[in-house]
Amino acid sequence: ERLVDLRAHRHRSLEETVLSKVSVFFTMVLIFTYFFYSSDYDILDDHRRVLDELRPSPPRLLPDARSHRNRTASADAEQVDAPGQLPQHMSDSAKESAQNNGIPVSNTFGTKRFPQAIIIGVKKGGTRALLEFLRIHPDVRAVGSEPHFFDRFYDRGLEWYRNLMPRTLDGQITMEKTPSYFVTKEAPSRVCIMNCQTKLIVVVRDPVTRAVSDYTQTLSKNPGLPSFQSLALKNSTTGVIDTTWSAVRIGLYAKHLENWLQYFPLSHFLFVSGERLVSDPAGEMGRVQDFLGLKRVVSDKHFYFNQTKGFPCLKKPEGSSRPRCLGKSKGRPHPQIPSEILQRLRDFYRPFNHLFYQMSGQDFGWD
User: Fold this and answer.
1) C-alpha 36, offset from chain centre
2) Is 209 assigned to a binding site?
3) Residue in 86, 89, 81 with CA at minimum distance from that of residue 60
């Protein structure tokens, strides 16, 4: 009986020893697991901190356009290249590599900036021709289509507008053209909110021939349009000109310029002759390049005169090795307008033209 008790005692002692060792083992496992995951989280935190430091900051957005003026100088200076965008400063070897691969450098590198110069008018004055001619210059980058930001889409904000712009390198000029800006009452203040230092180009043309050209374009899209004379005159008997018709109203250049001069000095404007842009494109382009502070690159060698269309054409337009003229709509024949109607329009425009000559400091010889 004593032997049985002894064996039972030893058995209990062995069980207690095993349980004690198992308890110590699991305790060590728990402690080890705790330290393992604690150190692992520390490492992950370190990794996150490093990644956060390396990750570029998001681009800064401009404040509300309606409450700040002349912000583009500081905005452009503070711009950060968008994610995935290469820096605007690049080595000559990188530029050469991009060009050798047929990639325009400005399309790959650079920054989207607000336009430093805008062609603001006028419709059917020659704005498209001017922009096409300017595209020849390597230091000019322009939006292809008309943004209509300052007259139609202003509520979309300046950041939306800047995103429409092409990328430019340092030393290049960003441009856009929307001819309706010149006759939009709100446009001058809105452009000035963006930047009161913006250079403004206005292509003007004899307001009578401009009105006929405007009507011709509309007629081609709407063959059922009333006659020119019925639209130009309030009353055919009295012969009073209807200034509410847009084709007539656009030609009141002095009236529209007066609105712009409330926000911009005359020195910020260049008035380009639509007639001379046809008869002497190289000469007129020389004035434009001087105004923009560009080297005179566009010259006689870039043009030839198309006798059929009656317009100058580009020998080598940008991105092409073949000569090209403007679209089929350019040079379309005008409808026959009674001479007495044209003379009434000339008499109507004469005082406005003379006032515009005085305001602009240029005599365009339309009378």
Assistant:
1) 56
2) no
3) 81
112 as an active site residue: the answer is no
What digits encode the pLDDT tens for the residues 236-273? 888 999 999 999 999 999 999 999 999 999 999 999 99
The model's confidence at residue 25, banded by pLDDT at 50, 70 and 90, is: low
pTM (predicted TM-score): 0.72
Q: Which two tokens stand for residue 90?
A: 């690049």
Element (H, E) at 89: none
Among the options 112, 123, 124, 177, which is catalytic? 124
- Quickly count: other Cβ atoms within 10 Å of residue 78's Cβ: 11
Residue type at 322 in one-letter notation: R
Question: Helix 339-360 to helix 207-221 angle, to the nearest 10 degrees?
Answer: 120
b/e code 211-234 from CB counts within 10 Å (16+ = b): bbbbbbeebeeeeeeeebbebbbe
According to DSSP, the β-strands at 173-177 and 140-142 are parallel
β pairing state of 140-142 and 311-314: unpaired
DSSP 54-89: HSPPPPPPP--GGG--S-HHHHHHH--PPTTPPPS-
The verdict on whether residue 333 carries a ligand-binding annotation is yes
Q: Which two tokens stand for residue 331?
A: 């040079």
Which secondary structure element, helix H or strand E, spans residue 121, and what is its range?
strand 117-121
End-to-end CA distance of the chain: 142
Is 205 annotated as ligand-binding? Answer: yes
What is the separation of C-alpha 111 from the centre of its chain, rounded to a whole number of angstroms?
12
How far apart CA 339 and CA 344 sit, in angstroms, is 9
